Amino acid sequence: MAGLGPAALLLLLLAALLLPGLPAEHVPALLWSTGRPQWNPDPALHEGHIVSAQELAVLLQPVFTPNPSNLVLFFQERLSVDDFTYYSESYGNKNPFQNVQEILQSSPSSLVLPAVDCRATRDLLSFLQASGDWDLKTLTNLDISQLEVNASKPFLLVTELQPPTSEISTLEAIAENDKIIGRLTRDLQERGVHFSVIYTAVRPSRVSRKTDVMWNLRRQLMATEEEDGLSYPPLSVTTGNNTCILFYASNFSLVANDSVLIELTNATFTTRSVDISSSTCSDTNATLSLKYTKPVNGINSLEIRFLMTNMLYGGSDRNWFTLDSVEIVQDEGKLAKYNVSVISAPAEYSFHCQLVGTSSLDLASLIPSNLEAINWDVFISRFQIQGFNVENGQFSYASDCTGFFSPAIWMGLLTSIILLWILTYGIHMIMQLTTNSRFDDPKGPALSVPQTE
Fold first, then answer.
1. Angle between helices 124-131 and 6-18 (to 10 degrees)
2. H-type helices in 90-154, by residue range?
3. Where is the V-type proton ATPase subunit S1 luminal domain (predicted)?
């Protein structure tokens, strides 16, 4: 590969030899330039292909040849290609990627890579430093006026964008990062500096898109939570030394008044900034109380309650636990209450469902029971909860909301029954066929069959 030094080739070789068996998590990478580099996508990079470290090195060759050009590297902690459609189209006219999209459209040369191996992006800075003689600069205060440009030596400007926190939702963090990218890009252009930009992330975001989940449903009887690379354990409520409630979700978010996104996944499972002290447990009732302080601007406090009961049902002669209702309390005053359908399991089991929320497409629906509930939309992906009989701090076998007879199985059974009926009818008709008992002899008199026979 022309333009790459021995150290860069050694890094790529080590990455290829030592990391072949790891799961290929991927993130998007956006490349554009205002000067010389012209991005030439490889025709082999078809849809669904994950760009490896070697392929990324080839695609970055225009930055190094014939000489390294000025380069700006925007690093975000988490980003997925689905974020560009999910956050741009799901919340009205609020487009958090407005600056990035406008820059890509106006740039004389750009390249969008939907899927790049995370191992390549994590080592990207080391690879760039080993591949060219750069004047490395790190922008901490986001003030481009202090940047000194040396005409004889290209600069590599590294900017780490802010991640979501308990005070800043994912949507707000992405929108703020988009403003930073737009402002820095315009400031450099106003100074007459020609440069290239790489915008990527370290790891993919955890948000599961509703459309993706709907197309990938499958039966999971007695299933436990699947491994998907998430590092956080389920949220647990303990009484003394015993765990009495377990709760898990890959995506836990609310939308207030069709406009304000409240992303609660990070605060609930990663930073654990949620207050669960009001949760209660007993043999017959359990309440999981999740309290958040200032989850977004304009809301000072938010509490979400999951109310569960454990009862003996004579028909099955066993105890079942049910999630009876979900309540959302805003600023300790406004109460939104939802009745819950489908969410129940034997008391010894946990309950699992791919989609739980207020949408009619969700497998387990939250049904508004008062007027305030209409103002909220709830989205929970890969929901799992257990409120009774928790052993060793782990989920028991899961009763899934997708029944044994899924629509696909019903279609297969109905088709098989129709084909079996056709086969049976055909065999019956064949068995009813009879042959003639008399035959006409052409050399003898004509055969006469009385009508009475």
1. 150
2. 98-106, 118-122, 124-131
3. 242-388
